[in-house]
């Protein structure tokens, strides 16, 4: 209950603080810009919430985003594919990367940290190979996903909200969600109860890869170009948002709704720091401090729970 109130209050405090320090922050344009800038981060944070709940981690998502977007753009520009076919190819690429990460992790019982680090390099190198290390411009071919609709809000933002709501319901109300919490809490107990955790863990990583690819399509639509360098360091933003939202790095606890508040906090922090003139290195230092504080709070909560 305290955390449920704490996140909105923290978000409100940031909004008020930046509103007092920048005369341009509390404007309609600022909030619309934030809303239209976070769909990719939001859907990837949803996937990472599921991954952390099962006590895993996926560091490859930024590279998978770049590879999926680059493959979609090349399919449209160089291979003559139509939009539905190219988008499907990009999503399938993300699904394959996530499934491979999960399968290798489960089959050889390796830490997902190490396996996803390897996938990070594979996907990034593949993104350079597919795009010939050049930005692929597609114009407005997929721009409909980011074209403002009501009140300047894009369909991508509405889609991201729909994914948040659906994922929250799945995690809280479905057998799938209960299995994931059980796996993250005590995997051996799940085995003794007759439930094999392995396929469920692979499914979670496959879902993460698919959502990373969807994030790539959202970014491709917004920028109208696929950059092979896209998504560098984005995994840190995603993990920061999820951990700020209260999902435990130790597994077994998490909330998609709280993750969305974490995304908003990260986005408002970034936008506010930009408006008050903070340099990029300063923004990275502050973001890193926020991650460390969130991790310390998670450790503190776990110790209190055990006590």
Shape: globular
Element pattern in H and E: HHHHHHEHHHHEHHH
Briefly note the CATH topology name: ABC transporter involved in vitamin B12 uptake, BtuC
Identify the CATH class: Mainly Alpha
Largest sheet: 2 strands, antiparallel
InterPro entries: ABC_transp_permease (IPR001851)
Membrane topology: Multi-pass membrane protein
Family: Belongs to the binding-protein-dependent transport system permease family. AraH/RbsC subfamily.
Transmembrane segments: 43-74, 86-110, 149-171, 200-218, 230-249, 256-276, 282-300
Keywords, separated by commas or semicolons:
two-stranded antiparallel ribbon, 13 helices, mainly alpha, globular, ABC transporter involved in vitamin B12 uptake, BtuC, 307 residues, 2 strands
Can you describe this structure in just a few lines?
The chain is an all-alpha fold. The protein has helices spanning 2-21, 28-37, 39-53, 61-77, 83-107, 112-131, 155-173, 175-185, 187-192, 197-223, 234-244, 256-275, 280-306, and strands at residues 136-137, 225-226. The mean pLDDT is 93.
């Amino acid at each position: 209950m305290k955390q449920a109130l704490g996140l909105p209050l923290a978000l409100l405090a940031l909004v008020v603080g930046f509103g007092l320090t920048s005369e341009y922050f509390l404007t309609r344009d600022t909030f619309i810009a934030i809303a239209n800038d976070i769909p990719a981060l939001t859907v990837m944070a949803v996937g990472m919430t599921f991954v952390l709940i099962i006590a895993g981690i996926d560091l490859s998502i930024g590279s998978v985003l770049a590879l999926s977007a680059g493959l979609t753009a090349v399919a449209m520009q160089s291979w003559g594919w139509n939009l539905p076919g190219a988008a499907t190819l990009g999503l399938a690429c993300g699904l394959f990367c996530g499934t491979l990460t999960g399968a290798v992790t489960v089959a050889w019982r390796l830490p997902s940290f190490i396996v996803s680090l390897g996938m990070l390099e594979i996907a990034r190198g593949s993104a350079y190979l597919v795009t010939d290390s050049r930005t692929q411009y597609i114009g407005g071919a997929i721009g409909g996903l980011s074209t403002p609709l009501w009140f300047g809000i894009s369909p991508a933002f509405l889609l991201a909200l729909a994914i948040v709501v659906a994922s929250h319901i799945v995690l809280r109300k479905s057998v799938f969600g209960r299995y994931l919490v059980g796996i993250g809490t005590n995997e051996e107990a799940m085995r003794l109860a007759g439930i094999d955790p392995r396929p469920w863990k692979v499914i979670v990583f496959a879902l993460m890869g698919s959502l990373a690819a969807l994030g790539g399509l959202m970014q491709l639509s917004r920028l109208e170009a696929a950059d092979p360098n896209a998504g560098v360091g984005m995994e840190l933003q995603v993990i920061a948002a999820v951990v700020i939202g209260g999902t435990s790095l130790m597994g077994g606890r998490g909330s998609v709704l709280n993750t969305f508040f974490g995304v908003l906090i990260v986005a408002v922090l970034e936008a506010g720091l930009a408006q008050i003139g903070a340099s990029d290195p300063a923004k990275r230092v502050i973001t890193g401090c926020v991650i460390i504080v969130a991790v310390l709070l998670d450790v503190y909560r776990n110790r209190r729970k055990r006590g």
